[in-house]
Amino acid sequence: MSNAGDATLDLVNEFNNKLNKVAPGAVGIQLALMVVVGLAALAAFSILRPSNSNVYMPKVKYSEDEKRPPKIGKGITDW
Q1: Could you please report the per-residue DSSP string of 29-76?
Q2: Which of 1, 39, 73, 76 could join 5 via S-S bond, C-beta 3.0 to 4.6 A?
Q3: Which whole-number Å values give the CA distances from 37 to 8, 11, 40, in the listed order?
Q4: What is the spatial distance between Cα 72 and Cα 51, in angstroms, rounded to a whole number?
């Protein structure tokens, strides 16, 4: 093989070796970030749902009387 081919193969192998090594700190940071994002989304939903009940309540107007879902309260955790 030529020198350029060997250099390219070495570069690809070096890149693959770096990809195979995952730092535990990076995994911890990613996990913490996703937990914070998830909790923020849950908090935003819990705060916004009572004031936007038209969007978040079951579609009572489309259901039959005997199959109508119960009304949802206005509390933060009433969902």
Answers
A1: HHHHHHHHHHHHHHHHHHHHTGGGHHHHS--GGGS-GGGPPPPP-SST
A2: 1
A3: 40, 37, 5
A4: 12
Tally the residues of the chain: 79
Residue appearing with tokens 């309540």: 57
Chain position carrying tokens 């195979």? 20
Please tell me the distance from the alpha carbon of residue 6 to that of residue 9, in angstroms, as a whole number.
Answer: 5
Place of tokens 């955790």: 77
pLDDT in tens, 48-64: 887 777 776 666 666 67
